[in-house]
């Protein structure tokens, strides 16, 4: 028994010794030219491989300092560099016949530079082109066309524009797993990465066969999950747009190499769409579907259901990508959105109410056109607010000078709004509001137009038609008529602190005009001075 144990121990020891000696007997560096040649042929790029070492235990050859050249039309720097490349090989053919049978690749700590060109192509578009063409024509393969496994461990991917001065966006801890890789058939894959500025990305599905001459047009069928993506830091939107938020995406992607379809849901927390806006406490939910033309870099949003709580809007239209810029041509229809659902989100879209006030009750409707580059959008169309209340804003006190002239008072600490409609144009240079029609039951109908500067400065010229129950005001004392009195005024100051200023010059001009026409009560035609004097409390002559 002891003899058998000793013999077994000797055999095991001999095997271990052989395994330790074999790597020194097999000069794997002799295979480096063959490995570089096969990789270069398969990828269509020059591949350089450093020192090779053999591990019998793992059945792999390790290569140090890997580099893959970029498309010369994009960069002279390497497309890929890696700390090491592990090549899984069949050990027995390597030892006994000194032939290299590759079964898999693992890139360790690679850095990959993805660059887009001005015509929408990418620097990886030509990757593997010659090999794919050879394989698709049925000719004998000149290189490595299939491997059991292809992995990337702890990688870093830089995404940028070849002509841009903006620093490329970096995705770290990239892990890619591909099984049954082939240039001529579909293969499964799984990709995970940490996104720039935080968040993580997971893409799983099937890809292939590799498109000959344009790798970026390779068919794809995959699911996409994004968690806690910082929109501003990720590079998905330009900083000048003012768009911010943490996004979560669950979507599907299908591409035949020419047309791509995507659909799913998007939820954004702490979002804002205006440069000087403030984040919304309520999330933004979007259910979307798009068709995208890969050749023209243009697409159509066929479904865009946008909601904040129970307030819903519908967005459709087209978009066109040109380098780092995306231009939109879309329509948004929002009918009878509950004010109470939207009120907290208004600052996120750049709407600033008077300090200490808030909208309560009623509904908002809009029918808007959205056009232009995403960082210079122009939004136009009618907006309507119905049956609402501006709580905490005493219109009576703000209009005290006008009330003194008219004898009217809105009363209370709130302002009831029966109707507010306007045609709005919002652009980077400011906001214009035309055809304003505001009905305040306690005051009357206010009409006019004006502008809001990017800093929030107001410049409006308005006219208050003070109807019903008018009496005792300076206008009436001046003989400017009873019901239906019209008071011109301006709104100055800022959106958070508006100032209501009577337009005395316009009122005086109106008084003179009416005096000339002999329409001033108690005033003889042709004596406008008496009417103007009465307007300011002087005795009539």
Helicity level? 10-25%
Number of helices: 11
Oligomeric state of shown chains: single chain
What radius of gyration results from the CA coordinates?
A: 36 Å
Give the total of beta strands. Answer: 25
Low-confidence stretches: 7-26, 135-144, 478-483, 520-541
- Amino-to-carboxy terminus distance: 141 Å
Tell me, rounded to a whole number, the average pLDDT: 79
> Which class of secondary structure composition applies to the elements?
alpha+beta
- Give the biggest beta sheet: 25 strands, mixed
Basic shape: elongated
Fraction in beta strands = over 45%
Task: Tell me what the structure shows.
With 541 residues, the chain is α+β, with helices and mostly antiparallel strands. Among the domains are: 143 residues, no CATH class; 148 residues, no CATH class. Helix content is 18%, strand content 48%. It is built from eleven helices and 25 strands. It has a 25-stranded mixed β-sheet that branches. β24 and β25 form a beta hairpin. α10 runs antiparallel to α11. The chain is elongated. The termini are far apart.
Features:
25-stranded mixed beta sheet; 541 residues; alpha+beta; disordered C terminus; 25 strands; single chain; elongated
A few lines on this structure:
This protein is α+β, with helices and mostly antiparallel strands and 541 residues long. It is built from 11 helices and 25 strands. It is elongated and about 100 Å long.
């Amino acid at each position: 028994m002891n003899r058998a144990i000793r013999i077994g121990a000797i055999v095991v020891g001999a095997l271990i010794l052989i395994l330790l000696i074999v790597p020194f007997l097999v000069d794997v560096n002799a295979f480096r030219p063959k490995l570089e040649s096969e990789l270069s042929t398969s990828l269509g790029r020059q591949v350089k491989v450093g020192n090779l070492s053999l591990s019998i235990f793992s059945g792999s050859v390790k290569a140090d300092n890997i580099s893959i050249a970029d498309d010369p039309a994009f960069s002279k720097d390497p497309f890929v560099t890696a700390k090491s490349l592990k090549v899984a090989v069949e050990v027995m053919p390597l030892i006994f016949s000194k032939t290299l049978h590759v079964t898999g690749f693992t890139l360790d700590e690679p850095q990959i530079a993805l660059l887009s060109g001005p015509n929408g192509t990418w620097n990886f578009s030509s990757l593997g082109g010659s090999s794919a063409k050879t394989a698709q024509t049925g000719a004998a393969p000149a290189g490595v066309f299939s491997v059991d496994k292809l992995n990337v461990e702890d990688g870093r991917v830089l995404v940028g524009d070849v002509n841009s001065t903006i620093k490329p966006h970096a995705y770290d801890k990239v892990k890619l797993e591909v099984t049954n890789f082939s240039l001529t058939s579909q293969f499964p894959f799984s990709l995970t990465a940490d996104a720039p500025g935080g968040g993580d990305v997971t893409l799983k599905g099937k890809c292939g066969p590799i498109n000959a001459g344009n790798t970026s047009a390779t068919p794809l069928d995959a699911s996409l999950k994004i968690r806690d993506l910082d929109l501003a830091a990720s590079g998905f939107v330009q900083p000048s747009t003012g768009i911010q938020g943490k996004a979560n995406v669950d979507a599907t992607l299908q591409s035949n190499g020419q047309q791509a379809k995507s659909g799913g849901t998007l939820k954004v927390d702490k979002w804002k769409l205006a440069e000087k806006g403030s984040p919304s406490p309520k999330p933004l939910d979007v259910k979307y579907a798009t068709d995208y033309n890969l050749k023209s870099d243009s697409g159509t949003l066929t479904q865009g259901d946008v909601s904040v709580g129970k307030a819903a809007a519908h967005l459709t239209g087209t978009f066109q990508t040109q380098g780092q810029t995306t231009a939109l041509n879309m329509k948004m229809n929002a009918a009878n959105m509950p004010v109470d659902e939207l009120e907290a989100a208004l600052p996120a879209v750049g709407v600033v109410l008077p300090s200490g006030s808030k909208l309560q009750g009623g509904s908002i409707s809009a029918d808007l056109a959205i056009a232009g580059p995403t960082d210079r959008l122009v939004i136009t169309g009618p907006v309507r607010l119905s049956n609402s209340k501006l709580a905490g804003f005493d219109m009576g006190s703000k209009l005290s000078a006008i009330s003194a002239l008219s004898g009217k008072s809105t009363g209370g600490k709130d302002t009831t709004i029966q109707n507010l409609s306007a045609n709005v144009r919002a652009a980077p240079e400011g906001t214009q509001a035309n055809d304003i029609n505001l009905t305040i039951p306690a005051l009357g109908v206010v009409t006019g137009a004006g502008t809001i500067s990017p800093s929030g400065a107001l410049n409006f010229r308005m006219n208050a038609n003070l109807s019903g129950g008018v009496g005792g005001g300076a206008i009436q004392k001046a003989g400017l008529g009873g019901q239906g009195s019209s008071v011109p005024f301006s709104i100055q100051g800022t959106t958070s602190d508006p100032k209501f200023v009577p337009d005395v010059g316009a009122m005086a001009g109106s008084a003179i005009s009416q005096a000339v026409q002999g329409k001033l009560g108690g005033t003889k035609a042709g004596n406008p001075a008496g009417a103007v004097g009465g307007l300011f409390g002087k005795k009539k002559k």
